[in-house]
Design a protein that fits this description.
Elements lengths: L12 H6 L8 H11 L4 H12 L5 H23 L14 E12 L5 E16 L5 E13 L3 H7 L1 H7 L6 E6 L3 H10 L4 E4 L1 H17 L8 H12 L2 H8 L3 H4 L2 H12 L6 H6 L7 H15 L8 H15 L3 H41 L35 H4 L7 H4 L1
Parallel strand pairs: 1-4, 4-5
Antiparallel strand pairs: 1-2, 2-3
Length: about 425
């Protein structure tokens, strides 16, 4: 008896219905594994999985599975950002929203560093404080992070912006550190947003200005910094500019003083803090500063961690999902993207098999195809017989062959012949 012919590997239809993946873990176990690994190092996640569920896997298995899930989730988010349909827009427009953008660095392999840009979106609510004063709070915060350039970030974040309904919000405030690329990001998604310079950044440059004046020989009171901050926060930058105008030229010509005043001069319209507080807007970008620590650095900047560039964005896709309380949605997106890729792979394999089976048949048909008949020679044209002249030679009188002579009216009548 001849041995059975070896067949190739394929997909069982039930695997697609049950959303099974390669390996010995069930979909639920894989979800738990990725969920743990996105909060803690891979080795620690392996230990916790074994302790909680009694499942023994290796650290490379945890790492590959998590990175695979993140890659699928990232691909799904990128596809959603390229969609033009407003199906993902928020059902109801929010009254007031705030967006804040900033960057942080993560360590890569071979001692390199790369900047990760993060966008934080939140809803602004006003609440009464302990003593009855009005306080501004930002809640319902969601995040989007990518290791990419500033121009690409604007396109990739379109899906998250559409989901939160930034374009439909009645009023939007952008609290930033004043960087040019952040202003371009705001212009792309909400050009009419109110621009606010982050108050801690303004305080930092104000401190540098006072230090430059002190180094120039000016006697600065010990509480000058606190007084200047109070004036800036409650009276605006105009009072400080008037104080600067009264300085002597020897102080204004110092390089450090000119540098800081140039910084403030470009951002005076972003420092109207009394108006912002009166209208109920936040003046600090604390939500994106905390996002750099909680979303990015807490998982990607641990002790001894160095990441390959291709693994950073998959981890960020899962981190932003879990920190935005959208883990179930992110996991379902990864499952949907895996099914889509698997179906594409099936189609490619089916096309390859069809071509492989049709190639011998087409070769036989071409080989035994009857010869193409030669075209028949063209038929020579029939020579035309010269017709007699219609007029008499040397005159314009019609001859017997003129068309008029052939008509019934020109025929001799029978009476005339008789």
């Amino acid at each position: 008896m001849e041995p059975v012919r070896t067949v190739g590997r394929g997909f069982f239809p039930l695997d697609e219905e049950l959303a099974l993946q390669p390996g010995c873990l069930t979909p639920r176990q894989r979800e738990h594994l990725a969920h743990l690994a996105i909060w803690m190092p891979f080795e620690r996640a392996r230990q916790m999985l074994e302790e909680f569920l009694g499942i023994q896997v290796s650290e490379p298995t945890v790492r590959r599975g998590t990175e695979r899930t993140g890659t699928l989730c990232e691909a799904r988010q990128t596809a959603q950002s390229q969609q033009t349909s407003p199906a993902q827009a928020a059902a109801t427009a929010c009254e007031k929203q705030v967006i804040s953008t900033d960057g942080a660095y993560v360590p890569l392999v071979k001692g390199a560093w790369a900047e990760v840009r993060t966008v934080a979106i939140g809803e602004v609510k006003e609440k009464a404080g302990r003593h009855g004063q009005r306080e501004v709070h930002t809640g319902q915060i969601s995040y989007f992070s990518r290791m990419t350039d500033a121009e690409s970030l604007g396109d990739l974040a379109e899906g998250g912006m559409r989901r939160r309904g930034v374009g439909q919000a009645k009023a939007v405030c952008a609290v930033t550190d004043g960087a040019d690329w952040i202003q371009g990001f705001t212009d792309l998604h909400r050009p009419d947003a109110l621009r606010v310079l982050d108050f801690p950044h303004a305080a930092e440059h104000l401190n540098l200005l006072l230090e430059a004046l002190h180094q120039a020989g000016m006697k600065v009171p010990p509480n000058a910094f606190d007084r200047c901050l109070h004036i800036l926060k409650h009276r605006g930058p105009g009072a400080l500019v008037r104080c600067y105008d009264r300085l002597s030229a020897s102080y204004k010509e110092r390089e450090g003083v000119q540098k800081q005043m140039q910084y403030f001069g470009k951002r005076l319209c972003l420092m109207q803090y009394p108006d912002y507080q009166r209208d109920g807007w936040p003046i600090g970008s604390g939500m994106v500063e905390s996002a750099n620590k909680v979303v990015v650095q807490a998982r990607l900047k641990g002790a001894g961690m160095h990441w390959a560039p291709k693994h950073v964005n998959p981890m960020l896709a899962l981190r932003t999902a879990v920190c935005s309380e959208r883990w179930e949605e992110a996991w379902q997106d990864s499952v949907t993207e895996q099914q889509r890729q698997r179906q594409s792979q099936w189609k490619l394999q089916a096309t390859a098999r069809l071509q492989a089976h049709l190639a011998p048949v087409l070769l036989v048909l071409v080989r035994f195809r009857p010869p193409t008949p030669q075209p028949a020679p063209p038929t020579p044209p029939v020579p035309r017989v010269a017709e007699p002249a219609a007029t008499l030679p040397g005159s314009s009188r019609p001859s017997a062959h003129h068309p008029w002579k052939r008509g019934p009216s020109c025929q001799p009548k029978l009476v005339a012949k008789m």
